[in-house]
Design goal:
The complex is a heterodimer of chains A (355) and B (254). Chain A contains 14 helices and no strands. Chain A is 78% helix and 0% strand. Chain A has 355 residues and is mostly helical. The termini of chain B are far apart. The mean pLDDT of chain B is 87. A six-stranded mixed β-sheet of chain B has the order 6-7-8-3-9-10, sandwiched between helices. Chain B has a four-stranded antiparallel β-sheet with strand order 2-1-4-5, covered by helices on one side. The chains are: A mainly alpha (355), B alpha/beta (254). The interface between A and B is large, with 38 and 40 residues.
């Protein structure tokens, strides 16, 4: 019996080690991939040139010197960084939202954030309403504000109804329709020129990413991701059982649900207010990660981050190159790319030992 | 530790579910919670476990006030095994049992937690299933997983809601024997709601019969398990007999 016990413990620990390696290796591969993708574009370079440009710019105190350095450091790299950060934010938020609602169909957008931010953006674009309305910063800012407002409304209504998973999902879906109608109303009255701008925003793209934007987004995403990771064990309890069991295990499920939803909403809002609506990562990232690494959220959340970043990088690069010089918005490509991967994984999903 | 419940009442809105339930339970003893469906057995267990907040009354485990206690502290004193459930996101048995260590842990599982989990996996004969997913198990196996999780909390009071309801005969006996052994060896106080009177008579020390939201009768087998009580509370005619030193019920046709 003792022998058997040691075997189990050994398998358990090896499984855990394997997961650490998958996460660390995954992040490393994503970074390598980002550098490789940076070489691709209308003027192809090689990896040596990219690292050379980064090095020259860093040593020159952050000032890109020649034209090629500028293309790499100011155009392509921030775009890669934006893809990674956005992928992480959306995917981790999706995994956490699925856990607290105990619902595998949920994504960060289920609670209405995407349509609310689209509404905020279109208010700013079409009517110039809101803080800094009309400017491109105003679009970002208003999209962000409305997304948070939507989260606030969902929380208030759900809290009144006991903060159960189904009230959050149902309230979110209702608000989704509401904000969608609001946006359509604005679009209906918008001039053709403005309408095009709104639609362009809603596609979700990484065009014109800048370091400042990446930095702001990254601060929020890192902060929120750390916050969700902090509750990883509690997410296990909530996702793997019910609220009653959670309470007997010393957890306040409602409190954690509210906090984690808020963190997910904040991260999502920060991402999509810059990029526009990029939907599928928040659903597919967590699912692909779960099929590969299991449903322990201590590993699932970081690995969802890896998968999210990976999907975004690949999708954006394909969108950038496939019809170059026309750039297809990443929001479109990601669904074309993610859906087959997603369906394939559903069909071949295995739950092997030690995974 | 001695459990002392006094005048516990519970309401859903204006609907009274439990009406001034009182009883005392010594440590190392198993209390069988008896009564027909809808008499408040589950509500009583949930009120004691902290899932539901009783409308009035008190419950003390020695000096510890169970109704006014930090949830985390309480999780180390009281463990609850619900009726069979199937989670939305299946997890491996070993991880499910590890959840029971939540009240003790930070971010990582420590060596001690792992040891405890291993101990319980072998105690509940779950080692062959350690890396299976909970949705791949039979009802009885899954119930043992939840029992192992509850015991991982190292509770002093163990609450079981119909633990044997989805088990075959052998598993029923096996599970109840385990519970008996835990009560004896670890001096656990156990309350178990159960429909099988004969099984209860074989393994339990005390019997609390609920009827119409109230305690109908409370005491040992001689006092509670009588043909008269069966007829009054359950509405069935039965003959009670002694067999191998246990009370035994033989039902009569309606």
């Amino acid at each position: 019996m003792m022998q058997h016990r040691d075997e189990i413990l050994g398998t358990y620990r090896r499984g855990r080690k394997k997961k650490y390696i998958m996460i660390a290796g995954g992040f490393f591969l994503v970074l390598l991939l980002a550098i490789f993708f940076t070489t691709l574009g209308t003027t192809d370079t090689d990896i040596g040139a990219v690292t050379g440009s980064i090095w020259r710019t860093l040593t020159a105190g952050g000032e890109a010197v020649d034209k090629q350095d500028k293309i790499i450091v100011l155009l392509r790299l921030p775009r890669m960084a934006m893809a990674i950060v956005a992928g992480i934010g959306l995917s981790v938020s999706g995994a956490a939202m699925q856990a607290v609602t105990r619902n595998p169909l949920v994504s960060p957008f289920t609670i209405g954030i995407s349509n609310a931010s689209a509404f905020g953006a279109s208010l700013s674009i079409v009517f110039g309403i809101g803080f800094f309305g009309g400017s491109s910063f105003g679009t970002v800012f208003n999209a962000f504000l409305w997304a948070l407002g939507c989260m606030g409304i969902v929380s208030l209504i759900s809290a009144r109804a006991g903060m159960s998973p189904s009230t959050i999902v149902l309230t979110g879906i209702a608000l989704n329709y509401f904000f969608s109608a609001c946006t359509s109303t604005i679009e209906f009255f918008a001039s053709e020129h403005k309408l095009a701008e709104v639609v362009q925003w809603a596609f979700g793209s990484l065009n014109g990413s800048q370091w400042e934007e990446v930095f702001v987004m990254a601060v929020v995403v890192v902060f929120c991701t750390a916050g969700m990771l902090w509750y990883a064990r509690d997410l296990n309890v909530i996702a793997g059982g019910d609220d009653e069991v959670a309470r007997t295990l010393g957890i306040h499920p409602e409190r954690i649900r509210l906090l984690v939803c808020a963190e997910a909403a904040l991260a999502t809002a920060a991402v999509i207010s810059f990029t526009g609506v990029i939907g599928f990562v928040g659903l597919a990232g967590p699912h692909i990660a779960r099929l590969l690494i299991g449903s322990d959220h201590r590993y699932l959340l970081p690995f969802s981050a890896v998968m999210g970043a990976f999907l975004m990088l690949v999708a954006d690069t394909i969108g950038r190159l496939i019809l170059a010089p026309v750039m297809i918005p990443v929001g479109i490509v990601i669904s074309f790319l993610g859906v087959p991967i997603f369906i394939n994984l559903i069909l071949v999903q295995r739950k092997g030992e030690g995974v | 530790m001695t459990l002392c419940v006094t005048d516990l009442s519970f309401r859903y809105g204006s609907r009274q579910i439990l009406d001034r339930v009182s009883f005392t339970q010594q440590e190392g003893r198993i209390l069988a919670l008896l009564g027909p469906n809808g008499t408040g057995k589950t509500t009583l267990l949930k009120s004691l476990s902290g899932i539901l907040r009783p409308f009035e009354g008190s419950s003390f485990l020695d000096e510890e006030d169970l109704l006014h206690m930090n949830v985390r502290k309480k999780a180390k004193l009281v463990a609850y095994v619900p009726q069979n459930t199937n989670p939305a996101f299946p997890m491996r048995v070993i991880d499910a049992v590890m959840m029971g260590r939540r009240p003790f842990q930070g971010m990582r599982s420590a060596r001690k937690d792992e040891q405890k989990v291993m101990e319980l996996l072998s105690l509940l004969e779950l080692t062959p299933f350690a890396f299976k997913y909970t949705n791949e198990l039979s009802g009885g196996e899954r119930q043992r997983v939840f029992l192992a999780r509850a015991l991982c909390q190292e509770p002093r009071l163990l609450l079981l809601d119909e633990p044997t309801s989805s088990m075959d005969l052998k598993n029923q006996l096996r599970t109840m024997s385990m519970v008996r052994r835990l009560a004896d060896e670890q001096n656990l106080t156990v309350i178990v709601s159960i429909h099988d009177i004969n099984l209860a008579a074989m393994y339990c020390d005390d019997f609390l019969m609920l009827c119409d939201r109230k305690v109908y009768t409370f005491g040992d087998a001689q006092k509670v398990l009588t043909g008269e009580n069966m007829e009054k509370v359950y509405g069935v005619k039965a003959k009670m007999d002694e067999y191998n030193g246990y009370r035994h019920m033989i039902l009569k046709k309606m």
